[in-house]
Amino acid sequence: MPAAVAWGPAFAPVPSPSRAIRPRLRLVGPGERVSAPVRPRIRLSRRGRLLMTLMVAAAALSLIVVHMTSVSAAVAQIDHATTVAAGQTLSDVAAAQLPGLPMDEAVARLQLANDLNTPQVRAGQSLLIPALP
């Protein structure tokens, strides 16, 4: 059974200038292609795994802190809450609670503050009133 020999560089860290890299022989069977040697997988020590875990935990914690500060900033813009009376519309609430704004802007701010898709409100519904700038 014939075998071919492939020459390739030996695995070494960074060679020093005084030492020459000696090629290493590798047996190649019939029909096999000569390819680059497979690099070994990186294996982390216990300290490396701990460091990676701490880095991921720190990243997750920072994302949570950023999210919570954005939520608290949104909550800080709410002035107070009011309850819709029978027969009252969102425009009536906007006119009474946000008198310094034009009607369309006041209604839009109420819809955004309360996550409303439509201007429909019902009696007894509690609405958050945004703070004026």
Please trace the helix and strand order, writing H or E for each element.
EEHEHHE
Question: Per CATH, which architecture of the domain at 80-130?
Answer: Roll
**Global geometry:** rod-shaped
Instruction: List low-pLDDT spans.
Output: none
Number of strands: 4
Radius of gyration: 35 Å
Largest sheet: 2 strands, antiparallel
Q: Main sheet: which strands, in order across? A: 1-2
Structural class of the helix and strand makeup?
Answer: alpha+beta
Q: How far apart are the first and last residues' alpha carbons, in Å?
A: 87 Å
- Beta-strand portion reads 15-25%
Query: Quick one: CATH class of the domain at 80-130?
Result: Alpha Beta
In percent, how helical is the residue content?
25-40%
The number of helices is 3
Per the CATH scheme, the topology name of the domain at 80-130 is Membrane-bound Lytic Murein Transglycosylase D, Chain A
Q: How would you state the average pLDDT, rounded?
A: 79
